[in-house]
Amino acid sequence: MRKLYIYHYANKWNRAVAGTWLLNENINPVVSNGASNSWIINNVATTETYVYSVKDKCNFVDTDTITVLAIDCDLVIPNIVTSNGDNINDVFFIKNLHKNPGTSVKIFDRWGVKMYEATNYQNNWKPNELSDGVYYYIVESVKRGKFNGFLHVLNNK
Predict the structure, then answer these.
(1) E-strand spans in the chain?
(2) Which residues contact 42 (CB under 8 A, 6 or more apart)?
(3) pLDDT (tens digit, 0 to 9) for every residue of the chain, 157 residues total?
(4) Ramachandran area for residue 119 (φ above 0: left; ψ -120 to 50: alpha; else beta)
(5) What CA–CA distances, in Å, run from 31 to 21, 103, 113, 117?
């Protein structure tokens, strides 16, 4: 879920305006700004079309629409790495990592020994030095929080 910030600037006649955003032309407003120049639409989770209706102090009304595309920013963490040189799953590649800078990664073996650590992971770890097996990861994102789980490494070793 995300917040959408929308800014409105005075019209060319510098008339005071007040407006309301409606979701898919519904009657109930999503947000209303009164006399301010910005709005916040909370929880933008899917692509939606909003209708903006504005009325100035002379009761002139105008409307326009905007389509807001919700972009997936959630981290998608793999559960297998096959570092065999075929360029498929060769690295521990976390989807949407570029949208979550400062993410750290730790990999542990089954005895809890740390095998890898990066404080600002760049989707570049190849577990070539590891034996085949199941490992445990901890991924900590500044924006998304902490994730942990199991990672299967298949290097044919």
Answers:
(1) 4-7, 17-23, 29-32, 38-41, 48-56, 61-68, 80-81, 104-108, 114-118, 133-141, 145-153
(2) 1, 3, 4
(3) 344 444 444 444 444 444 555 544 444 444 444 444 444 555 555 666 766 666 666 777 777 776 766 666 788 999 999 988 888 899 999 998 988 889 999 999 999 999 999 999 999 999 988 999 999 999 999 888 999 999 999 987 6
(4) alpha
(5) 6, 34, 52, 44
Percent helix, percent strand, percent coil in the chain, to nearest 5: 0, 45, 55
Distance, in Å, from the CA atom of 109 to the CA atom of 115, rounded to the nearest integer, reads 7
CB-based contacts of 99, cutoff 8 Å, min separation 6: 73, 143
Q: Are 97 and 75 in contact (CB under 8 A)?
A: yes
